[in-house]
């Protein structure tokens, strides 16, 4: 954990499979004693990367007898506790701030194991993940009923075709929240559905036979049985190629690849934070060739690979694509040359290889700076044609990309 160990806390499985840690304490006191060092900071654990991220803090002690549950709107209810009393707080995870939610207009309320069912949504084209989160309850901070399932799905006209889980060991019968998540990782408001065993067919009544005289049987030759042909196995799909990864924002990466198969049921996206150990982060439907992975930590390097799958198995992995969510290195050696007519030409050294632009800022007092220009990547010069003759100015430059702004260069003045 980022903030250190804790006890008597709650761990809540979120709609995207990450785990939110809330409450608890760090003291050595007995559970029935008010904590001397309560843990207010929340933390988020990403099982795909094994990384911890510190999140917003709660405002009330939530320790022994507290509860935290995922709500159908994908927020988390944190409540109670011996010293939280009759109060509650609502936590909004980061995925709710990544754009508009997809919506589910209709979904079945009951499905059986292995059943294919239709989920109506106007946002089918943008859906990158479907999750089933079991409804559960908390006792003394423990919630043993939490579980997540990521069913296979494909885009269809007006919605999604989803295949219910087929294994009752990993998905016990009961009630689940069905979430759909778009390419930005934003979840819908869940629909609650019940998953149960295969439906029992209605028996056909057996008619009462009418007795008839038994004729003398005539021997008939025994026919030679015709061998039943073996079913043709489903060929595994061809591996995708040309996987590329590009920074989309400070916490998101856009992936794209080439689909080389005509028989895949979907694609599996794997991610690694160390370039060696990969874990599945999502599956997408057939013919989809792009995915946006969001909710990532900055200052990290991520590696990705993609494979196609169908009933016959999985393809080989694509090439590995690696991307770093880091800000550019700061420019240095900034100098200013003042022309006779007052124009100021700035020159600097470019120390980055991942910038998308340079931000040029100017000040008249050396304290409050304003942006006056944004130049292209790899540019090392800019002329301020709006500078007034005989006016003193201060300048500084920073490199920027989609992750953020670098540190500033040295400040130069025209005095």
Topology of helices and strands:
Blueprint: E1 10-13, E2 19-22, E3 41-46, E4 51-57, E5 66-70, E6 76-80, E7 88-91, E8 110-112, E9 116-120, E10 127-134, E11 148-149, E12 153-156, E13 159-163, E14 174-182, E15 191-196, E16 241-249, E17 252-258, E18 266-272, E19 279-285, E20 290-293, E21 300-310, E22 313-314, E23 321-325, E24 332-338, E25 344-349, E26 357-363, E27 370-376, E28 381-384, E29 394-400, E30 412-413
Parallel strand pairs: 8-15
Antiparallel strand pairs: 1-2, 2-3, 3-4, 5-6, 6-7, 9-13, 10-11, 10-14, 12-13, 14-15, 16-17, 17-20, 18-19, 18-21, 21-22, 21-23, 24-25, 25-28, 26-27, 26-29, 29-30
Task: Note down, in words, how this protein is organized.
With 415 residues, the chain is mainly β. It folds into 4 domains: 10-94, no CATH class; 110-196, Immunoglobulins (Immunoglobulin-like); 241-325, Immunoglobulins (Immunoglobulin-like, Sandwich); 332-413, Immunoglobulin-like (Sandwich), CATH 2.60.40.10. The chain has strands at 10-13, 19-22, 41-46, 51-57, 66-70, 76-80, 88-91, 110-112, 116-120, 127-134, 148-149, 153-156, 159-163, 174-182, 191-196, 241-249, 252-258, 266-272, 279-285, 290-293, 300-310, 313-314, 321-325, 332-338, 344-349, 357-363, 370-376, 381-384, 394-400, 412-413. The chain has a 5-stranded mixed β-sheet, with no helix packed on it. Strands 18, 19, 21, 22 and 23 form a 5-stranded antiparallel β-sheet that branches. A 4-stranded antiparallel β-sheet has the order 1-2-3-4, with no helix packed on it. β26 (357-363) and β27 (370-376) form a beta hairpin. It starts with 9 loop residues before the first strand and ends with a strand. 33% of the residues are buried.
């Amino acid at each position: 954990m980022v903030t250190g160990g804790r006890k008597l806390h709650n761990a809540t499985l979120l709609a995207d499979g990450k785990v939110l840690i809330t409450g608890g304490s760090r003291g050595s006191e007995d559970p029935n004693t008010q904590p001397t060092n309560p843990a207010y900071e929340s933390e988020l654990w990403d099982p795909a990367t094994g990384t911890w991220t510190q999140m917003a803090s709660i405002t009330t002690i939530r320790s022994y007898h507290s509860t935290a549950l995922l709500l159908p709107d994908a927020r988390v209810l944190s409540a109670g506790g011996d010293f939280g009393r009759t109060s509650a707080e609502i936590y909004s995870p980061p995925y709710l701030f990544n754009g508009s939610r997809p919506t589910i207009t209709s979904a079945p309320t009951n499905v059986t194991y292995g059943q294919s069912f239709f989920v109506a949504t106007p946002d089918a084209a943008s859906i990158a993940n479907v999750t089933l989160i079991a409804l559960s309850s908390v006792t003394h901070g423990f919630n043993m009923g939490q579980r997540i399932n990521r069913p296979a799905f494909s885009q269809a006209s007006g919605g999604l075709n989803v295949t219910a889980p087929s294994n009752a060991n990993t998905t016990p019968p009961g009630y689940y929240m069905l979430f759909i998540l778009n390419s930005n990782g934003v979840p819908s408001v869940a629909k609650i559905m019940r998953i149960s065993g295969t439906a029992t067919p209605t028996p056909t009544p057996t008619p009462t036979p009418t007795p008839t005289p038994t004729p003398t049987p005539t021997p008939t030759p025994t026919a030679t049985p015709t061998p039943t042909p073996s079913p043709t196995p489903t060929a595994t799909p061809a591996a995708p190629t040309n996987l590329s990864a590009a920074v989309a924002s400070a916490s998101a990466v856009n992936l794209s690849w080439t689909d080389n198969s005509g028989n895949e049921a979907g694609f599996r996206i794997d991610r690694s934070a160390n370039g060696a150990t990969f874990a599945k982060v999502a599956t997408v439907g057939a013919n989809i060739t792009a995915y946006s992975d969001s909710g990532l930590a900055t200052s990290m390097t991520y590696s990705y690979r993609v494979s196609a799958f169908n009933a016959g198995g999985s393809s080989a992995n694509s090439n590995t694509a690696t991307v770093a969510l880091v800000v550019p290195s700061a420019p240095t050696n900034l100098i200013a040359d003042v022309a006779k007519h007052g124009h100021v030409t700035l020159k600097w050294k470019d120390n980055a290889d991942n910038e998308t632009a340079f931000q040029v800022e100017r000040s008249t007092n050396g304290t409050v700076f304003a942006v006056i220009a944004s130049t292209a990547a790899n540019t090392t010069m800019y002329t301020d044609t709006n500078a007034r003759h005989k006016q003193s100015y201060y300048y500084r430059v920073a490199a920027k990309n989609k992750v953020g702004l670098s540190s500033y260069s040295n400040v130069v003045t025209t005095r």
